[in-house]
Records
---
Amino acid sequence: MSEMEVVIAEDVTKEYRRGSEIIIAVKKINLKIKKGEFFVIIGPSGSGKSTLLNVLSGLDTPTTGRIILDGLDTGMIDETMFPKIRRERVGFVFQNFNLIDELTAIENVEAPLWPTSLSSKIIEERALTLLRLVDLIERKDHRPRELSGGEQQRVAIARALINNPKVVFADEPTGNLDTKTGEDTVKLLRRLNKEQGTTIIVVTHDESLIKYADRVARIRDGKVQEVTRGKTPG
Amino acid sequence: MTFRILIKSLRLAIRTGKRFWIFVTIYAILMATTSIFLDGAINGGDILPVLGLVVGTAVMALFYGLIISGYRKMQVATLRCLGWTSGDIKWLFLGELILVCVAAALIDLEVIIHYMGIGFYFGFTPAVIQSLPFLLTFLLIVGVQFLGVLVAWRRMLKVKPMEALRKA
């Protein structure tokens, strides 16, 4: 494995059993995603892109093949080690934002680090820095219901970055946003990708996101059809 | 860090609002009633009502555990994505269930103190719950809450992190 690659999928297949039927959601996928890349996986609904995200991020295990996430073969890792790996190496951005309603914006950002041995002061400082970065410092004490969809997604992005992850997985990050807010959100992800060097893997069906990508993998019927360069330079 | 999660869980519980206060009220009534019957049982009365109330509290704890685990399912899936272990998540439930008991006990104490004050003001000696049965009841009810925590926690162990990625 090259030092430059943060996620590698080798001959990855994922099968599900639905009753007596076996569904092959992802078929023999090979991908190499480099450090610092803004990588977009695009495909229509039911193409297997969310399954691929689950497998790439270590949330699910492939039926065959292997995933190497930041140098670790996810198939070889003990189940009990996964929380630590997620906490230290991975961030998630969800389509539905998945903020905790009873927590304020800053508390939502801090939450991933609460179970760590870091002091509350350091956690708060990190959260404040990130909220400043996503331009929400003045809304830090607001609860999710008091924030717009775009603001909630920015809080979720700040939360995904609080552990300084090697890679952020974003599942349809613009899916619940209007066009303008969606575009602002992707621009923010792209800016953070460039400024912080965090690898960002976005799964989407939205073609307009291609212009922000370094590379794009098109997936259909569980197979990667092609991997092309995005439309954005560098 | 466990202490930090416990403190945050108390804040989370209070902010859930209606559900929290409904259960505080139910537990306050259960605690007061159990204390009165326990006081009677200590002074030679029947123990059966006390046992009945303890069983009722256990059922309530299980019910509360089920409600919390249903309500927090998506939160738990999200927190697991963010790297929380099942052990960390247990403290979220424990905090809420213990807080409900403490709040209920404080409400009972408040009522007792006011009742005594009114009694002394109007010149009668109020028959109040004695401290020993009240303390015993409190400990008993807190103990029974662990059933609720266990139920909620076991249900949460089944929640897979990737459920957080499910679309609404």
---
Amino acid sequence: MTFEQVKSILKTKTVGIAGCGGLGSNCAVALARVGIGKLVIADFDLVEEGNLNRQFYFYDQIGMLKVAALKQNLFRINPDVKVYSFDIRLCQSDVLEVFSNCDVIVEAFDKAEMKYMILDAVHNHLPEKFLVMGVGMAGWGDNNLIRSRKSDKLTICGDELNAIADNCPPLAPRVGVVANLQANAVLEILLGPNEHQIHNPH
Amino acid sequence: MKIILNNKEEIFETEELTINELLQLKKYTFKMLVIKVNGNIVKKSEYYTKTVVEGDDVMVLHLVSGG
């Protein structure tokens, strides 16, 4: 498939991004660059200086709502992407309402409890939806621990091990890897496998 | 019995195990666990009653914070 063909498919698609921190902001940027049609982004937080070690915001955006700042940044990258932003702390009923028209939902929360909440909501109430989660990305190094696996419509990206802690902070490289694994999983769901690509060299 | 646990084949000496027994055997002690058996999520209230048998595909997912 040429990039023009890729874009012509992706422009008809809608992806939901639940949380606009390190995973959500970077995943949204990757999807905007390849020409996704619509992004539905949700977060309640403001951009803080401490976010800039991994999240796709700029120093002069400190204090802005993350959804507003992200919308601005996505527009600067690709003005053709329609961005619908929700300034809310998502609960189960919001998830169902906000993301019900999305082809794929990207889970990009920071707290494990919120990850559980959206998995439960999608599994029980939107079982036909694809959900791509980010689980385990704190620290640095250990490239080969980071992977993804699938179970039906659920994809898990990350090392599934390293939780954030004071002595194990989330940093741009590993968070960016997982965010982009999520974006890559979204493309595979939306485009199918590429027949012109080598999938298994052995 | 032989089951698939997190994409790998595993053999157990018993013919069936409850989810709780499986978690103890495999030393999965984390708090935020999601268990799927053959694609279906098992509720926490079913951990003592739901059993895993020959051929089941079991996913144990440990949700860790970070994003």
